[in-house]
Amino acid sequence: MPSLFLRLVAPVSKMVPSVRKPDREPGFKAKLFWTFMAVLIYLIMTNVPLYGIERGAGVDIFWTLRVILASSRGTLAELGIGPIVTGGLILEIMVGSKMINVDLTDPEDRQLFNQASKAMAIIMTIFEASVYVIGGAYGQLDLDTATLVVGQLIVAGIIIIMLDELVQKGWGFGSGISLFIVAGVASRISWALFSPVMARDGYYHGIIPALLQVAFGGGSLNDVIVRYGLPDIIGLTTTIGIIIIVIYLEAMRIEIPVEHKLHRFRFRYPLKFMFSSNVPVILAGALFANIMFFSQMIWNRFNGNFFASLLGSWRVENNRPIPTGGLAYFVVPPNGILYSVDHPYQAIGYLLLLIVSCYYFALMWVEIAGIGPEKIADQLLASGLGIPGLRRSKKIITDFLRPYIAVAAGFSGLLIGLIAGIADVMGAYSSGSGLLLAVSILNSLYEEIGRKYAEEISPPLRKFLLGKI
Q1: Residue whose C-alpha is closest to residue 62's, from 84, 85, 87, 82
Q2: 153: closest CA among 170, 178, 128?
Q3: 418-440 pLDDT, tens per residue?
Q4: Which 3 state secondary structure label does DSSP give 269?
Q5: Which is deepest, 296, 388, 448, 469, by most CB within 10 Å?
Q6: pTM here?
Q7: Residue 393 to residues 375, 386, 400: CA-CA distances in angstroms?
């Protein structure tokens, strides 16, 4: 019996239009078209400024986490994917802690859960838009202007929810959240590589123009090996290294021996070593963003209060809030190796907090996403497969698979947190979490697009992949 909470929340999803599933699987070109359109619309939103606010007014609350949130300051995409991920995070925590009861293997319960997820995204869009404006993110606005800005943020947030729903329901490749993150990371890496703007150290902001300036302008190479808060050679090396490591880890598999019950042929069933994929980093980013958000709201209201300072104390520099203490001090990613050396406790605290968060989110995601040992046991039995030497019983196969999946999920969560944290400490371009997400997302997209293309050109292969022969 689904939780009363889900039944109360789910109807909110009907407040906005819903994207229906395609009647039949769209072709390769159709899916590519809708994927491109979803990204294009989102990129347009990231460049359309909000009407009624002054450029640069107020405080940029999420400036350190905009890559994870796929957001853009002062535009229609101000909130980015934050409401979607935050709504999902709340439901995940409630399901994982057994605060709400839902059987995700039951189609009716899963449908109700999906409706509740969309409803929570809508609720969080309305809530974050309202609190964002009331909290002074755009400075002091009169009532009419504030209402207008909140309305724009809510409408834009609902459009983002629908774009994500469009892709997730099978019209496109991957998910809207993933595509928007990749688009944001790609633009930031391009800016770090090629920006022609002159930086405060006398060199170009982009590392490529800066190196050309050194080569032909008589500068010193030592000046661009390490730069405070700017793209440098160490950051470029770290970025390339992280890309190689993530691609290698994504290709690793844990192979479990299985055999067919009738034909008795044996082969190995592969489980991805990075079992929890990139979801733990997204959820950790959403958690950190909300800690920053609520901490700043409380600090602005109760400035100097001891209990408020436990969550976070802040100062503002160049329209950017800088944490000076409390929990918020450890959720802001370090800005390169020089910053980490100057603030070692913050860098270590951030690294540990990110690792622990990713670990627990990885374990929780296995159950939420329906990729736990019970689900895989059901898949094996439905395909006529079993484990050699074990009776074909769901309980026995589940018990056999549980340690494999627990280790894969937990260790992949720890590893994801460690890689993302070290990348931030070393100054990887576009942030460590963003870079890790982009690489793993692109790898998954490449596999999905390649599989779909192969199905299009070879109908027999399509039948084989669908298990029809």
Answers
A1: 82
A2: 128
A3: 998 998 888 888 888 888 888 88
A4: strand
A5: 296
A6: 0.77
A7: 13, 9, 11
